[in-house]
Fold this protein.
Amino acid sequence: MAKTSDRRTFTVTTPIYYVNDVPHIGHAYTTVIADALARFHKLAGRDVFFLTGTDEHGQKIERAAAEKGLSPKALADSVVGRAQGLWRALDISYDFFVRTTMDIHKTGVQKLFRRLVDRGEIYKGEYKGWYCVSDENFLADDVALEADGSKICPDCGKRASALSEETYFFRLSAYRDRLLEHYEAHPEFVRPQSRLNEVASFVRGGLKDLSITRTTVKWGIPVPGDPKHTIYVWFDALHNYVTAAGFDWDMGRFEKHWPADVQLVGKDILRFHAVYWPAFLMAAGLPLPRTVFSHGWWLKDDTKMSKSKGNVLDPHVLLKAFGPDPIRYFLLREIPIGQDGNFSHEGFLHRVNSDLANDFGNLVQRTLTMIGNFFGGEIPEPAPETAGDAKVRTGFDELKGRAFDLYGACALNKALEEIWAYIGLVNKYLADNQPWIMAKDPEKRPRLARVLLQAAAAIRGASYLAFPVMPRSAERIWGFLGEARKPAEVPWEALDFRGFGPGRKIGLPQALFPRVALKDFLAEDAAAPAPGPESTTKGVMSMDQISYDEFRKMDLRAARIIEAERVPGATKILKLKIDLGAEQRQMVAGIAETYAPEDLVGKSLIVIVNLKPAVIRGIESQAMLLAAVTPDNKALIPFFDRDVAPGAVVK
Ligand code: ME8
């Protein structure tokens, strides 16, 4: 790919997703890649245009709407809202959300269609052949007939429909040589390289003219001047990239944002983007995108996750338990863009527990806690750097350079791999220096200050470098470190390890990445009262005595219940929202067998707020309530008998 560092603008696109259903993890993948690239290029000082949206026309949507008893537009409207909600929850920072039902798009497509007619690129004829509605694709002639005389789509395995209708053809066949020349002259046009080879060999085999209108489909953009024809949904959809960029309603904007630097597509739709799309653009006299980057599929049990196979993972379940960053991290860290990956709960939990909770989360937690305990949250003037300390700094400076190149080359998994190798180095630095031992010797305070300063500066730097992938966590960590600015406000160039000095007020970290066990993630029993001798009236004296200091470690508070609801599919647990005065939290409690949600709202009770968060049925529980356990294992909550300020300390 052309070196990105000398360019002032950066445009990245995702495919526009069909609105027959809400997006799943596979769609989230493309969108998260695009978001990380967009955020990186913003940090690098470029004027970024990040485009995503929805593909709302065509027979597939027409059918899906009819099955649901809705108009296609009503279906689109309902799915668009939910898709945008998902992108918000995943912290997707798109600049423009295009819908193919927008007027700017429809007008642009009609203009381009007319332009191609005027240039003799389109002619009227008769199409006879087979069509796959699920893929919105014409089958190649060499697909064999089945025994019953029908044809099966080789890509998705669904039965195709026979078509015979008047159509407008685009002279795709005339573009064979020009496309091959373009691939030859711009080897970065399709990435990875192996995909370019596939595309080139397909084109070398010869191209047939492409039917680009349908008379039997009504839901779409009418052909200008011949409205009994509807423009083929792929001709319509591909042009979103230029209409959304400004063609032809704001040509200044268009010239700034087009051509795209990176167009991300799944490998299933590469041919549309690497053959038809450049041919349409050449025909219209518009510039071609620099790179069409084809990524792999997320598989479940070795089969592509797809809506039609019904094996999709619902991002909302993962989001509820983990928030966006672990999902973003996993998707981008696990595989290089281009390869397939298997998505399993086990694999996901293993990676986020080990890389995020253990390696990074613990580093932040330990370092900040020590700064709090040993220095009251403010690192004093440190001892000068030793050679060992300097390595943490120079290691960062080198990492910063490499991460820049890797992000610029879309090698997101490699960038993360390097950042995590550095986190490993910082962990080792702490283990080697043992600041917790230094803290016992008052003479070593300047050394202690140095070690904790290096670690904190490294954490700040590593969070910044991970920001494109984990924006929310990076922002939170910067907040704990007393940074007034957000990572997004600091240009890449300006970020300096030495910009973090002594004298800042450093806060205590809040739980960053909860460590979740698979059984807790999948089970609801975790919230139910534990059976056993300690949960009944017997055996009161049977447990070990604890000191007052041990008791004091529990942060018990009065909390007021502000919302209570059932959890779909769960019989024992309720989800609660509680007010703690300074903040509100959600929690899950195994009290559904003793209390109805409506009996709880407004009541005040005692909760422990510094217990490690647990994930129950995919929901993060950020506090635990105190309740008596009856002999038949039901929970009885002691409520306060008069008004108490939410957040009041209980001791
Ligand atoms: O094809 N793994 O829309 P679509 C990885 N509207 N990525 C996946 C995936 C999986 N299991 N499943 C889907 C369309 N995707 C057209 C595009 S563009 C002008 C028109 C991703 O809703 C992948 O990016 O079927 C794929 O290309 C896209 O979702 C297809 O989404």
Remarks:
- The CA atoms of residues 300 and 343 lie 6 Å apart.
- DSSP finds 21 helices and 25 strands in the chain.
- The longest strand covers residues 122-132.
